[in-house]
């Protein structure tokens, strides 16, 4: 199961974790996915996309 929004296609981002001494190790920011029903189908949608859909009146 991938961590990708089924509506917008937004996926995880990568970058560096910085310690106090500024050593860099790789890390990942996952998308805040929520399970919602849209037109009778269950979809995994990011929280930002869900907010936009509610604002536009599509949910």
- The proportion of residues in beta strands is 35-45%
Largest sheet: 2 strands, antiparallel
In what order do the strands lie side by side in the largest sheet? 1-2
> Under the CATH scheme, which class?
Mainly Beta
The SSE string, one letter per element, is EEEEH
Compute the number of helices.
1
Annotated CATH topology: Ribosomal Protein L24e, Chain: T
CATH architecture annotation name: Roll
Total domain count: 1
Give the CATH superfamily: Ribosomal protein L28/L24
Overall description:
This protein is of the alpha+beta class and about 60 residues long. It has one domain (about 1-50): Ribosomal protein L28/L24 (Ribosomal Protein L24e, Chain: T, Roll). Helix content is about 15%, strand content about 40%. It has 1 helix and 4 strands. It has one helix at about 45-55, and strands at about 15-20, 25-30, 35-40, 40-45. It has a two-stranded antiparallel sheet with strand order 1-2. Strands 3-4 form a two-stranded antiparallel ribbon. Strand 3 and strand 4 (about 40-45) form a beta hairpin. The chain starts with 12 loop residues before the first strand and ends with a helix. The mean pLDDT is about 95. Belongs to the bacterial ribosomal protein bL28 family. It comes from Floccifex porci. Pfam families: Ribosomal_L28 (PF00830). This is Large ribosomal subunit protein bL28. Keywords: Ribonucleoprotein, Ribosomal protein.
């Amino acid at each position: 199961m991938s961590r990708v929004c089924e509506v917008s296609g937004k996926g995880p981002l990568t970058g560096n974790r910085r310690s106090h001494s500024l050593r860099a190790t790789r890390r990942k920011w996952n998308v805040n996915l929520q399970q919602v029903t849209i037109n009778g189908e269950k979809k995994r949608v990011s929280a930002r996309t869900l907010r936009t859909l509610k604002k536009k009146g599509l949910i």
